[in-house]
Each structure stands twice: as structure tokens, then as C-alpha cells.
């Protein structure tokens, strides 16, 4: 299994006067080509979010997403990622360059549009049937 792991500086904004600097570990695996795992274990040992890679890529260009995950660029230098709904939203802020470089490596590993060819469909079906 190939993949890439990178630490990304992010700020968790929880209120007007409440900001936490984080070092989020981002994981991408070629055998799970649609997903990016955001690991917040340094801040909360239970917190890992799985976000669609195409959502993050779209969020570099303009507002993207709905529901529990939304991504939006700001001022050509930053990206905001909102995780959650309504009152329980975690708002993350990161420099756009960090996310752009990470996603560029993922698209070198698995070009956009070729993800389905990387999935072991027989293994998925076997796992579903044996569950």
C-alpha cells in the first residue's frame, strides 16, 4: 500500500476569543483513494475525520461541500474547513499552500478520475458478505 502522510498546521477556532493551534496529521492511502484522513490525536485522542479528497480539491477553488463538511478558500492564502453541523461546528483554518502541496502528492499517486481502478472490489464484496 502506498500513501502519503503529512503534518499540517491548523487553527481550531471555537469562538471569538478561543483559538487553538494544532498540528493535524493528514493521511492518504492509494487503497482508499477517495478519502483523506485528518487525525487530531494531538488535540483529541478520539478525533479523526475522513473527508473526501475531491471535496478538499474543490474547496481550493471555491466554496464546496454541504452537510457535515464544508471547505472554502479565503484571500488566496488560506482555507477554512468546517466540520460538523449548526452549533457543533469545528472551524479549521490552514494556509492554502500546505493543503495544496499535500493534495498535489495525492493526485500524483492517484490521478483524479482513476480512483475506482485502485479499489479491491472483490475484497470489498467478500468483506460485506462475510459480515
UniProtKB/TrEMBL annotation:
UniProt keyword Transcription regulation, yes or no: no
Location in the cell: Cell septum
Keywords tagged on the record: Cell cycle, Cell division, Septation, Sporulation
Coarse class of the protein's main subcellular location: other
Family affiliation: Belongs to the SsgA family.
Name of the molecule in the record: SsgA family sporulation/cell division regulator
Protein species of origin: Kitasatospora arboriphila
Classification lineage: Bacteria, Bacillati, Actinomycetota, Actinomycetes, Kitasatosporales
